[in-house]
Amino acid sequence: MLDVSEDVRAEIGEDEATRLLAGENAPGSYDCTSCRTPGDTERERTSTVLFVGEETAVLAFAHATCVPSQVVSVSEEQLQGAVRSITGQQAGQQGGQPGAPAGRQPGGRPGPQIGQQIGQQPVPDGGTQPATAGGGPGAADSTPATPESAAGAAPRQAVLGVTCGQVLIGDTLHPAIVVEPNGPIARPGSDGPGDDFLPLLIEQGFHPVMNLDQVPAPIEGWSVLLAMGQLHGILQPPPAGSSQPVSWWQAHQPLDVTDGWRTAANKSHTVLVYAAPVGSIGQQPREDLLREALERAAAHGALVAGSMPLAGT
């Protein structure tokens, strides 16, 4: 009962797609790459999800009710980590014989490695998951960001700290990402000590937040990349002359999110992204404290936001 989208079929080739649909390479039971609960290809509709790096492809499986069959682009480094995890599991299951990628594609990239579970770690219930440069408990490194990442040329770097949590608006919990740099962000070409982080983001489509009682308006061209059930980055529109979006923020290591956050994101296919200047939010250990910090920042005119579609699973 597999669903193989046209995009996936084009990547893996007709022969591999035929074998999958015939059940030859289907896993039977699997852990859904989105919700992480068990699934069975013989009893329920299952989506094929192909994670594609620069040289490697990994084919995973998900409940069709969670995500559709699709191709998800991730970095080669992240995908290699997933392959090591899969081959390690297969080696244990097959007496030390690691699994091999299935065939080769016309473009030269190895065919997809088929795996049931891709590089997942259990996530504690509740709370927030910070992503900062400290590498402390519950933290993952964030990619150095620059004013170019916010809106232009890049004279100097800063690091964006990212925290995931759910925000209650009305009667609905919304998955949210809160972004706060570790220092002031200067406007390109400026040598002064000023912080232009929020003005630069407003120029890119973010909206000032006066209170947290309304869902932020969408920001055209931006999206949040969730792959293999983990947060990988925030994407901004492609530069002139390109059709590919670029990373505004990218995790050095995929960031775990809570089951509730992931479920809400997959249900709404939308993530709320809030941003505040350095020192406005801090790392809050609970979602109620995160909410209070956001409300304080909004009251002081130090908060912008936008809603972004979810890319990936």
List the helices and strands and how they pair.
Blueprint (H helix, E strand, L loop, with lengths): L1 E2 L2 H7 L1 H8 L7 E3 L6 E3 L5 E7 L4 E7 L6 E4 L2 H18 L19 E2 L14 E3 L12 E2 L1 H4 L7 E12 L2 E10 L15 H7 L3 E2 L14 E5 L2 E7 L9 E10 L3 H10 L1 E6 L11 H13 L4 E9 L1
Parallel strand pairs: 1-4, 4-6, 5-7, 11-16, 13-17
Antiparallel strand pairs: 2-3, 4-5, 8-10, 9-10, 10-11, 12-17, 13-14, 14-15, 16-17
Helix pairs in contact: 1-2
Report on this model:
By secondary structure, this protein is of the alpha/beta class. It has 2 domains: 2-114, no CATH class; 129-312, no CATH class. Helices cover 21% and strands 30% of the residues. The strands form 3 sheets. Strands 8, 9, 10, 11, 12, 13, 14, 15, 16 and 17 form a 10-stranded mixed sheet that branches. Helix 1 packs across helix 2 (14-21). The longest helix has 18 residues, at 76-93. Residues 88-156 have low confidence and may be disordered.
